[in-house]
Amino acid sequence: MKASAGGYARAESVGHALDLLAGSDGQGRVLAGGQSLIAAMNMRLSFGDLLVDISKLSELSGVVVEGDTLRIGALTRHAQVGADPLAKTHAPLLTDAVSHIAHAAIRNRGTIGGALAHADPAAEFPACALALGSTIHAEGPGGARDIPAEDFFEDVFTTALNEDEILTAISLPVAEEDEVQILEEVARRSGDYALVGLCLVKRTAGHRVSLFSVGPKPILAVGAMAALDAGDLDTALDALSAEIDPPSDTQASAAYRRHLAGVLLSRAVARLKGDTA
Ligand SMILES: Cc1cc2nc3c(=O)[nH]c(=O)nc-3n(C[C@H](O)[C@H](O)[C@H](O)COP(=O)(O)OP(=O)(O)OC[C@H]3O[C@@H](n4cnc5c(N)ncnc54)[C@H](O)[C@@H]3O)c2cc1C
Q: Which residue among 36, 130, 186 is best mutated to probe the pocket of ligand 1, counting the most ligand atoms within 8 A of its Cβ?
């Protein structure tokens, strides 16, 4: 099956893209790397009369440090994030995440903004954004707004972005000197979406734990975080199990996913303590 015929316009600037969306009567779809949108359109799961192509907006691409904040433009491709020295130094979780995302061809086209806006509950970057305490930056007809990652992911493939807004960047606090960032996931094959994934960040303020592929959206496991802050892994495992509502599907049962979540937390905590045996 192929996508139904529709319009296409290449945006010359963020303002131009916003004008195109505003004039599309709700039928505009932002096209970034196209790795999820085009596939969804080909399967007739996504419809839109106007593709607003933002992929040439170079001002939305790149990684910079601004004071204590790492800022990554929405159009920065997965492969660029994975190879970027600033990201590796200040947000190694993202560098690590890239190696788990799909395959080289997809990593060369897919963008971090696209992954966040798409909000696949099995995707790595949304959960990383939660664990790192990130802020999502958007622009719309009413101007710019900043959305904490914790408020951004609302449901399966659903975010706080309005239809007439564009995600412009993600920013996050640069890692402290002794901060530890760990990503653990289980997938059937390398490059497949994870059956379950977990991010663990340990900084002075405490632990942050997020999970993906355990429900309709990535979650911050606040009960497990509090228990880890108290040094109690057993309580953290119980809390984690109560905090997730994993699905059963053709890939894995809910019970197996719940079991895996506990295994991944135990593994991550072992790595945190330097016990990698
Ligand atoms: C075979 C396959 C395997 C994959 N495996 C994984 C995996 O293991 N892990 C993983 O995380 N991902 C995986 N992906 C998804 C991949 O990472 C996509 O690149 C990503 O989800 C979307 O990024 P994109 O730039 O291609 O966005 P697009 O496909 O262009 O857009 C996706 C959605 O986001 C919207 N959008 C995009 N950019 C913006 C923006 N700046 N502002 C507002 N809305 C925007 C679009 O309108 C669309 O609704 C896989 C994809 C494929 C095809």
A: 36
